[in-house]
């Protein structure tokens, strides 16, 4: 909590939604959300490290419980990829999908942490005034992921179909080869190429961000008195339980869309 | 909603994590899983093979058993036959032997009876001759009547 400020609903919400920033250049663009980056790197290292530690000693014999858990996860991802992508998925798409799923899930799961307690811990244990726990409520994270997928999409398009093949597809699908239709086709494809990363990233961002806002609003209600606290607790628990579904579902949707986009890049029309 | 350098740093982190997964996480686990799938498939095939072999073996064993039973029955039949033969032979032998002994005994008895008769006849003849000799001592000249005496002796035989 910002102890030196007067506590109003606005300051409460603003405080919770302010990143710890660090400037690395002259322009406003060259700022870094330290909290977002540190949290996501820590979680990524934890998640991937956990997988690596178990997989390192993976045995084809009777698996340990931990290995069975990882296998369950991997086979779940692999199954989804296999159903969508018809090529050698093991070289890139399946491991990438696993990374996306695990990482995004862990980032989203930070939303389960009680916001005010975490804020207190960050303030009084680490001395960090502004620190946001959930990297996926930062639009930079979701855009970074979606744009990476988008660039890979273009890369695979060119790699699989060649530059000419991709251009052909941009100008001649979906309406036909007739030169009159070329502008229309191109416009259509451009809209598609713009909308894909936007919808991809904003869907994840919106869901998790809204989830956090609702927790904040319920937290504010709790500050109004006994009745507010009572209902706030009940509704927070309900929302938290529902949020477990959203967190997992959004991670899954994000992964599936990435797989679908990359698969589409591999297939010619 | 301010896009800034965080985006680029997150994208870099993302690519590093993807690289890490591709390099270190995915291949060993995939290898383990594929190896296990192969082992399971092999095991199932071996089980199937074993089942077939068992079927064959049980078929073979029942055949052997049937043969053995048949053979045993044959042997029993033969043995019974042989036993009957042996009994029959023994009976025959006993009968022959009995008859032989009987014949021998009969012949001996006959022989003895004959010998006794002969001895008796000899004694009677001697007695008669002695008697007659006593009676006729004076009148009968043995030398003269030798013919007569011999004929009497002949008749008494």
Provide an overview of this structure.
With 269 residues, chain A is mainly α. Chain A has helices at 9-16, 34-56, 65-84, 93-109, 115-124, 139-172, 182-222, 226-266, and strands at residues 21-23, 31-33. In chain A, helix 4 packs antiparallel against helix 8. Chain A starts with 8 loop residues before the first helix and ends with a helix. The model of chain A has no long low-confidence stretch (mean pLDDT 89). Chain B has helices spanning 5-136, 146-156. Chain A binds chain B through residues 24-25, 28-33, 36-37, 40-41, 44, 48, 51-52, 55-56, 58-61, 63, 67, 70-71, 74-75, 90-92, 94-96, 98-99, 103, 135, 138-141, 143-145, 147-148, and chain B through 1-11, 13-15, 17-18, 20-22, 24-33, 35-36, 39.
Low-pLDDT runs of 5+ residues of chain A are: none
Low-confidence stretches of chain B: none
How big is the Rg of chain B? 61 Å
Residue-averaged pLDDT of chain A: 89
Given the C-alpha coordinates, what overall shape of chain B results?
A: rod-shaped
The greatest inter-chain interface is formed by: A-B, 47 and 32 residues
Assembly level: heterodimer
Can you count the beta strands of chain B?
0
Helices and strands of chain B, in order, run as HH
Task: Briefly say what this structure is.
The complex is a heterodimer of chains A (269) and B (157). Chain A is mainly α and 269 residues long.
